[in-house]
């Protein structure tokens, strides 16, 4: 969850914005929720703000502000004048990522927006924007450079002409993540944004300054706090007692939790200028203006939780709402959902009633009825039956913890699970005994260094489920369930040079496919646009990306109907290119033909064939799902009852004909795809 808001004049009305799971509304203080942003142009909510004067006026900023690997770009700012019943896009579409939307408490027509800009490329649509006519027109009132965005803007509660803006210089590429720079800094305006000055007295400056967060003490607006991600030093808290003109560090060393590009916020109690919370990897509390800090560690009381108890609220905290009229009432937005406290953050209730799990990968097992399995962002592995969600009824199992991706159940041994965490961290687990064994692929021949994608692809062989294939920058094979591996390929990437090497592994295999028609026929695709095929189980390899764009290979699929047919989808998302790339080959990849045709411009994550009809194809994109009944000549939307969401993976259950969509932000959806076969037959008639 990225943002949480309680309406001032309707305390039991809450809005909850998910980084990739749309906007939700509750009328009963979080007991039940309703999605109210399901059909707009993006699923990524960065911030929700409601007018204190008019509870029907709601603004939403889109595009996650922490800009991680799976962060989805937004499409500007949206406005509702009927409490979320309908929405109007108010522009700023090219900002991609919004940090804050701020309504002037004296005038609802005046709104300030902190915009970060594109994630993977430079652009000028970033900084602070202001409207004085309710969003009809916008003026850019603070701009530093095409590399520097603004992540936060705050308004002095005693003077609506005094503003503070946090600038953040960063640069992300598929192979590197630079989260600090000399353009980062704190700016102040005393004339409603007409002019600005950079505040530096007592604050760090230079190349090592990263993301910062600011808060103003409502009980004494002279007091400001700043949390700074100071690279190489750690998180630091600074305080000003003169409205930002000078600052002092409040503590020795660094703060006792991770502060970085994912989370960097600070909050102050409305009734005590010295009582603050540091919102980072963990939630920290300080009663003495940051001098001493302790991790919030009281017992959490779960409402519906995969585990009976947690020692603390979930890690990775993205927003904190403190009721200005009742400081005992605190809400915390985390990677594990929403937490609510009614005793000043001493104890917490986990409001786990929002179906917003972010799946990276999805699979179905061979049980009757079958179970769905998948790895999620920071919430481990989830597995459950394909039945509708009912509030109060849990039928999903939790396993492992942290970020997880590909999860497969051995079809010949349903108690054996294969799973994968980050950067090649693979394991085999016995679901009956709970015993787990690490099976990381390797080593590389001749002591060569391996590069693993953060989401390492692996598959079980069609011919023997004890045989596994897994990809680093080379392909590995195991014939004994991962206990031992042998390398069966050279480096299948371009082996990127220094200009494409940074702090993120690049030049890695991103997908693998084995033919079900010919043993030893394998395809592999990479993040740097390479596609290879072997017809002899890795003895020889042929590069087959001629005619394909130089983009990240999201899927390569060997057809189950024709030996020489294969499909490739690619994505330019990591270059701020949102075109659809989808290709078909009927000659083992010697030539390729685009089958995008009438599909809209949306990054494609996955393509699958229907299990019983070779002409029916299914595609998952960053905004939904599509099908074709003529092998890609024409495409049809499957989004009538699927909300706008990123479909990261699709799985088909041959027995039932079910199409299972693993979405990154709206959990799992199931479509009875046999109906599509019937439609095709009717069309043929």
Please state how the strands of the largest beta sheet are arranged side by side. Answer: 27-31-30-29-28
What portion of residues is helical? Answer: under 10%
Number of helices: 1
What is the residue-mean pLDDT, rounded to a whole number?
94
Q: What gyration radius follows from the Cα positions, in whole Å? A: 25 Å
Q: Tell me the strand percentage band.
A: 35-45%
Distance between the termini: 48 Å
Low-confidence stretches: 298-311
Shape: globular
Please report the total strand number as a whole number.
Answer: 58
The largest pleated sheet is described as: 5 strands, mixed
Structural class: mainly beta
Verbal overview:
Helices cover 2% and strands 39% of the residues. It has 685 residues and is mostly beta strands. The strands form 15 sheets. Strands 27-31-30-29-28 form a five-stranded mixed sheet, with no helix packed on it. The chain has a four-stranded antiparallel sheet with strand order 1-2-3-4, with no helix packed on it. A four-stranded antiparallel sheet has the order 5-6-7-8, with no helix packed on it. A hairpin with a 7-residue loop joins strand 44 and strand 45. It starts with a strand and ends with a helix. About 2% of the residues have low confidence.
């Amino acid at each position: 969850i990225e943002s949480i808001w309680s309406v001032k004049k309707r305390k039991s009305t809450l809005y909850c914005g998910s980084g990739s799971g749309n906007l939700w509304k509750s009328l009963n203080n979080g007991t039940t929720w309703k999605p109210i942003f399901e059909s707009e142009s993006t699923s990524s909510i960065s911030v929700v703000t409601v007018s204190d004067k008019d509870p029907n006026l709601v603004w939403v900023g889109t595009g996650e502000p922490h800009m991680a690997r799976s962060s989805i770009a937004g499409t500007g700012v949206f406005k509702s004048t009927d409490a979320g019943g309908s929405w109007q896009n108010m522009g700023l579409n090219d900002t991609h990522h919004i940090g804050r939307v701020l309504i002037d408490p004296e005038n609802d027509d005046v709104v300030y927006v902190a915009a970060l800009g594109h994630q993977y490329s430079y652009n000028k649509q970033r900084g602070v924007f202001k409207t004085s006519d309710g969003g009809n027109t916008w003026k850019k009132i603070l701009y530093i450079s095409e590399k520097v965005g603004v992540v936060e803007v705050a308004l002095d509660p005693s003077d609506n002409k005094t503003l503070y803006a946090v600038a953040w210089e960063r640069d992300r590429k598929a192979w590197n993540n630079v989260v600090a720079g000399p353009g980062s800094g704190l700016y102040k305006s005393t004339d409603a944004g007409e002019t600005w000055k950079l505040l530096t007295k007592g604050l760090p400056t230079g190349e090592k300054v990263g993301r910062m967060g600011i808060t103003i003490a409502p009980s004494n607006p002279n007091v400001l706090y700043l949390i700074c991600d100071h690279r190489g030093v750690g998180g630091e808290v600074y305080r000003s007692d003169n409205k930002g003109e000078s600052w002092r560090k409040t503590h020795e060393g660094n703060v006792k939790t991770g502060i970085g590009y994912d989370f960097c916020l600070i909050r102050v109690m409305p009734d005590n200028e010295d009582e603050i919370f540091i919102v980072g990897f963990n939630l920290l509390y300080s009663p003495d203006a940051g001098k001493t800090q302790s991790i919030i560690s009281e017992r959490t009381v779960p409402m519906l939780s995969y585990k009976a108890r947690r020692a603390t609220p979930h890690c990775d905290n993205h927003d904190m709402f403190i009721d200005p009229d009742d400081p005992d009432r605190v809400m915390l937005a985390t990677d594990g959902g929403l937490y609510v406290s009614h005793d000043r953050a001493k104890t917490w209730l986990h409001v786990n009633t929002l179906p917003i799990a972010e799946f990276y990968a999805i699979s179905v097992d061979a049980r009757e009825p079958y179970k769905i399995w998948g790895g999620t962002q920071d919430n481990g592995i989830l597995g459950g039956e394909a039945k509708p969600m009912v509030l109060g009824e849990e039928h999903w199992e939790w396993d492992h913890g942290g970020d997880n991706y590909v999860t497969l159940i051995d079809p010949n041994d349903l108690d054996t699970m294969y799973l994968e965490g980050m950067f090649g961290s693979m394991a085999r687990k016995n679901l009956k005994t709970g015993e787990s064994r690490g099976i990381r692929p390797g080593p590389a021949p001749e002591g060569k260094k391996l590069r693993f994608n953060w989401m390492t692809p692996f598959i079980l062989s069609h011919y023997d489920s004890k045989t596994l294939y897994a990809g680093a920058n080379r392909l590995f094979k195991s014939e004994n369930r991962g206990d031992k591996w042998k390398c069966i390929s050279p480096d299948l990437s371009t082996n990127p040079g220094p200009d494409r090497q940074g702090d993120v592994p690049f030049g890695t295999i991103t997908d693998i496919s084995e033919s079900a028609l010919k043993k030893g026929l394998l395809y592999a695709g990479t993040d740097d646009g390479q596609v290879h095929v072997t017809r002899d189980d890795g003895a020889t390899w042929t590069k087959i990306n001629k005619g394909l764009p130089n983009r990240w290979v999201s899927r390569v699929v060997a057809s189950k109907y024709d030996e020489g047919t294969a499909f490739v989808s690619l994505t330019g998302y990591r270059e701020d290119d949102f075109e659809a790339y989808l290709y078909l080959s009927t000659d083992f990849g010697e030539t390729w033909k685009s089958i995008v045709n009438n599909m809209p411009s949306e990054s494609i994550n996955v393509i699958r064939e229907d299990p019983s009809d070779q002409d029916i194809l299914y595609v998952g994109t960053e905004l939904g799902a599509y099908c074709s009944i003529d092998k890609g000549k024409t495409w049809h939307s499957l989004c009538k009852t699927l909300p706008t969401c990123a479909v990261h993976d699709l799985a088909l259950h041959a027995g039932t004909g079910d199409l299972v969509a693993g979405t990154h932000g709206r959990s799992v959806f199931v479509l009875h795809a046999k109906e599509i076969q019937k439609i095709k037959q009717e069309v043929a008639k």
